[in-house]
Amino acid sequence: MRYSRLFPKSSKQFSQEAILASHRLLSQAGYIKESVAGRYYLLPLGLRVQQKIQQIIKEEMDKAGYQELLTPILHPISLWKETKRTASVGFELMTVHDRNNSEFVLGGTAEEMLVDLVRKYQISYKDLPINLYQFSTKFRDELRAKGGLLRLREFVMKDAYSFAANEEDFIKEYKQMWQTYLKIFERLGLLVTVIESDNGYIGGEYCHEFVVPQESGESRYFISADGSYAAHEDVAKIRLENKNIDEPEKPLEKVDATRGSTMEDGAKFHNLPLWRELKNVLFVDENGRFILAVIRGDLDVNETKLTHVSKVYLLRHATDEEIIDLVRSFPGFISPVGIKNGLDKDLKMIIVADESLYTVKNAYSGANEKDKDYLNINMNRDFKADVIGDIAAAFEGATAPSGAGVLTAKKGIEVGNIFQLGFYYSKKMTDATFFDKEGKPQPYYMGCYGIGLARTMATVVEEHHDQNGIIWPESIAPYRVHLIGLDLNDKEILSRAEKIYDSLCAQGIEVLFDDRVGVSAGEKFSNADLIGIPVRAVISKRTEDKLEIKKRDQKQTQFIPLKEIFKYL
Amino acid sequence: MRYSRLFPKSSKQFSQEAILASHRLLSQAGYIKESVAGRYYLLPLGLRVQQKIQQIIKEEMDKAGYQELLTPILHPISLWKETKRTASVGFELMTVHDRNNSEFVLGGTAEEMLVDLVRKYQISYKDLPINLYQFSTKFRDELRAKGGLLRLREFVMKDAYSFAANEEDFIKEYKQMWQTYLKIFERLGLLVTVIESDNGYIGGEYCHEFVVPQESGESRYFISADGSYAAHEDVAKIRLENKNIDEPEKPLEKVDATRGSTMEDGAKFHNLPLWRELKNVLFVDENGRFILAVIRGDLDVNETKLTHVSKVYLLRHATDEEIIDLVRSFPGFISPVGIKNGLDKDLKMIIVADESLYTVKNAYSGANEKDKDYLNINMNRDFKADVIGDIAAAFEGATAPSGAGVLTAKKGIEVGNIFQLGFYYSKKMTDATFFDKEGKPQPYYMGCYGIGLARTMATVVEEHHDQNGIIWPESIAPYRVHLIGLDLNDKEILSRAEKIYDSLCAQGIEVLFDDRVGVSAGEKFSNADLIGIPVRAVISKRTEDKLEIKKRDQKQTQFIPLKEIFKYL
Description:
With 569 residues, chain A is an alpha+beta fold.
């Protein structure tokens, strides 16, 4: 490719919003251009990189026995209604009507479409496992879309789906995909950490995220000192020590407590440890029901865990007015003890207790009226939780669940994920079955697996750049060699440069040839650094019958005779 | 690929709606599966074919100097409003709102997006021509979508856009793309005819369609005996002979005419030739305005031509009630003479005369009241046309415009098209300019160029099949060799088959290996015929150390020793 013909040229300008290196460098070097927030043009250079990423993923998926296909982008909404995901996905889902008033979902993930496809055929146990994948444009109606390619509303995703006869066979698929992902990210020049993660609206019982540790990432996770435990903050577990569990239960007592409304105010007033206090946080779910989360005072509630344990989709904090007028309690003095008694009749509430309450006795908290506290609260005796589960937020310094050292918090970019789906889809959708050996229909045991291509590209740039520009790994660089011609006014040098360009191309080497006349050496060099092609080769008056070679990730240059250039490359 | 693992297997079932061979064969052989009308899954076999078509197009586009990029699928509607195409495209356009209430068009073509991209950069005349293309999913909200891949509501299209400094440079691009298309279709095994065609809602002044002559096609066109003239019926011109043009104009006369309402009734009643009668057809446009089309009685009005000449988007025939109550004329007795006098004040009408009226004098027609006719009507003396243009439908046996013989009507499948756009977009959109040598901003002179991939695939099947199945050209066959193992219960034969499969794969030859045990030879053979891979290679007890080779498009088989198979292939 001749740089003189390339659209567009690099530019020094960039948006003030481009805080991340990948956003700024990819924009300046001419890889991407924003259309509107979260929607980008992939320019010729950018598309080349994305295609190479796609090719690497394809090779590894094919090796793993997956078969590539392509589903429509518009999914009949009836399928999403079968699984009720129209409700769970909420505002991230875009829908559109056609002229016949049929409604479609703009695909964000394609589980229903794949199940609908597979169930159109008579599948026998002999046909399983079926492993299918595609590269296709996905839509996410994100509330905020900043950060260039790291959070997009529209992007090409590799999404794969496995259909197995049973859990055992599925686990083989899951492990194989895990290994396949490790190979893919290694070839892409990314060092990933695999963490347990939350399945969001995908469904299923467990899943893993492949993250690249990066301060610019949006995934916060905890990792044990020895690395044996790593989990996203939304699912990270901690080991809790027992506190005063051997103490005998004392009688419940209601006392005056003219104090402030914080947890610390309570601890100070009673001169008791924070862990003995109950932290009571009142939420409202998507149906207007109150959810009272109760947790040990030294811990925090993780809202994602709380939604799962409560089986709700959306949570918001209750307002002071709701606490006073509807629940008849008081901010800062909420207590699970007797709280449902004050509730208006037409309102509903569930109490969700964290497992940490098993580690404490004779706790204290408010008494649902101003300046009154209860002492010696004991779960089951003084109040009943509707649900008991893990709703505690992990924190730095906590003990890993295995007991293997303390947890450290890290941030990373999520570049891929793998999900166990189990029967989540196949039991919700009719006829999503195969025939077993006895000829009886059985639901498929499923999994799904995703990698976003553009975000992967941006992550590679976050990992591989310096102050002058991008430093592409050879595997996905848009070109292998950046040939720079200097002194091209000199016809003899021009002809030499053209000849070397032609012969590199003829050898199948991908070359970007800066053939511009009247552009300074300095500009061409800084341009090359910005674009980040692995090998820079300069031809000029000075180089005679050699090429001056510099690798993008090294400082020194060396002169290679033209004849030896192929051997060198 | 092992056939035992392939998803899905071929099936004898097919939809009753699959009338076309391509629809039926691609469905049965497992290349495609319908999701809902007009939206198809491309299954692993089908996607392989589409990818090969894509690769051929890409190679030829790259050779022609075009650069591949990728635009978002969702186009901000503001861009389509800039060019007013939201009005002209009408119901084929789908739009969607995001959660922030921004409205987007689901891309059907991407002219606005490309102009919007290019105008984001400072383009100099030195940067031109800029040639960009993409492969991306397009959406057309077609009223009817039948016929498998021939009329889709969602499909991958190669769309290309050229930006030139002036018409002269553009014409070079246009000619080059024409040649590029010829090469592409030749490589795909398609014999195309290039015809002048209508630009629909794309805009611009002229365009060409690449059609494959086929009875199943939806494009009707006319071609001269020597092939030097070929044009879609919507634009096809004919050479008109002068009739009684030398006759002196006689005085206009209103006469009683108790006759029927057809053209023939008039000719019979007056005993005058049909060509001397005026055919008056009353339409209503999208704004409720009347359009009176006037043409020589022996010709028909082509509505597409009429929309262009009248500069309207949509036409419908006026009803009898409208003719009587609003226009104060009478069905079968409409005349351009004085017709506007009867019209209600708040109504508008334009008279559009066909150029054929220049070839006739002293014509006759109705007189805007029942059973009254005018004789000796002469345009300009007795009525004035608001517009005079070519609105005549071509017909078989008419003379080609060049005079080169008579026209024959044919049908074909449109597989590609190329459009001159001129300044249509660059003058409607602000700042769609480059800087000329004097540094002055000038609008780009544009063109655009499309090929639908799935329709191309279906067209190849329409052209290349027999009663048993598809016969793929080697260039786009999903696999090169269909290896069939028979007698695989015999371990020695199985091992020989596996060995030959492995060694073919190792040589980079794409093989579909029917490794199924317990399936009859007959079923495997008919399966192979259906799928249509160019070379069938059988290994069985009977073949010993040879392979029994049969080409899909030939009848005879031959035995090739295993050792010579690579040489043979």
